[in-house]
Amino acid sequence: MPRVAEVAGAGLGGLAVATALARHGWRVRVHERASELRMFGAGIWLWENGLRSLRLIGAEDQAVAGAQRIKEWAVVDQHGSELFRRSFTDEDKMMLPVRADLYQALIDAARGAGVEIVTDSAVAGAEPDGVLVLADGSRLPADLVVAADGAHSRIREALQLTDKISYLREGYIRLLVPKLPGDEEAVITEAWHGSRRLLYCPSSAEQHYVAFSCLMDDRRGRSVPVDKESWRETFPTFTGVIDRIGGDGRWDRGMTVRCRAWSEGKVVLVGDAAHAQAPNLAQGANMTFTNAVSLAAAVSGAQDVPSALRTWEARERALTDHVQRWSHGYGWMVSMWPENLADSRSKFLQLVTGIPWVDRQLNRAARHIPVGDRS
Prior knowledge:
This is FAD-dependent monooxygenase. It is built from twelve helices and 19 strands.
């Protein structure tokens, strides 16, 4: 008889781990509280580690079929001076699909692997001996319960696995704009001006992903619909892009989640439930994918699931914690640095990003080989 896994949450992480488990022979059911599977409109950075992980669960080709292949990521300051540039190669790729395309690829991969996805199925909590508790009172026993129910995880709170939740001083608006002839198609540009940032990301043949970042007390900066006049004043060279913004988009406040442990008995946390982080290094989803494939491999060869989960965490957590810290530090450079010292920030960033040790730390996750990757 195949072992049974119940997964709470049909987001990117829940579908990835469900598919990975199913491909190892598990019988998997995913519970989604919403009435339909839907992803908000934005793009997503897929680093090499994320692409390799998606390949292992059979979702890579579809996820990137319409995506833009990125050649470089450039950071510029308020004067247009280059602060940092990172190139990508065939062995160290960056692809930038529309998030909905990635999500559909994960849905199709999950169903293709035999995963059952149940909508309108809200979760209330879980018990360490391997029981998923639904909001309607149903109790579903399993060999493994996966909490992929987001940064505000009910399961994590029910098991008191939270160590610390930190709300950051900055937040983000993410959306898509139409692509026009003559647009840059292969270079991500991140522009800094004071405590504001604008991120321009080529994403597909029809759309570009654009993100805005500012402090919580910047009311014009965080307004939705986007205050185009305010952002044009800050980034006049991006006026042509800003003018294309419609009435969509959403504001998300940055936050980090740290747990005292990623598992309790037969219940395990994945994705934002375990390690929500600011999107400054764009590695949150990629780390979720690498952890998902390694989790499936760890429990599939083990008789003692709780012990396998502890071993898996001991192996994977150090890198995840590292990415979380460096992502937070990257955001601090923008949100906490005094605006009257912006020029010194530019010089500092130009200096430190040229240090090989810093390059290794910034790219440690991207160059990580996921468990099971033999390519």
